[in-house]
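job 3f2a | input accepted
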Amino acid sequence: MKEYKNEAVNTVLNEIFAKLGVEAEISMQIDEAERVINVDVTGENTGELIGKKGQTLDAVQYLISIIINNRQESYYRVKLDTNNYRERRQKTLENLAKNMAGKVKKTRKKAALEPMNPYERRVIHSYLQSDKFVTTKSEGEEPNRRVVIYYKKG
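job 3f2a | predicted structure (154 res):
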């Protein structure tokens, strides 16, 4: 089973790399206990794989997940990353949350962020959940759903 997953991930990614003109290496760790497949791609020109705001990376992650879990008894969550993009993006989002919360505290007026995917919205909500002066709420319909930061009264 592990060999099948390894082979499937490598095959899919190598075909995508060829189409995008990306030269990269794939390393993979399968956590059987947590049922997670961590796939890390390293290379010089992996920006094509990331795409705008990680959209291509998310789409490839989704494709791999569908292929890996197709007609399987147990479901594995796939986490695809390249050159620490996800960690860097999380830090950027946390910084954005901190700055926008500061603006809301100062002006006491709500602030709407740009539309984000569910993962990115979750990062913002999590980062600000313990802040005593602001609260967050997701508003709108996909794909234009966004986080709005409100000042807490009282």
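job 3f2a | The CA atoms of residues 90 and 123 lie 7 Å apart.
job 3f2a | closed
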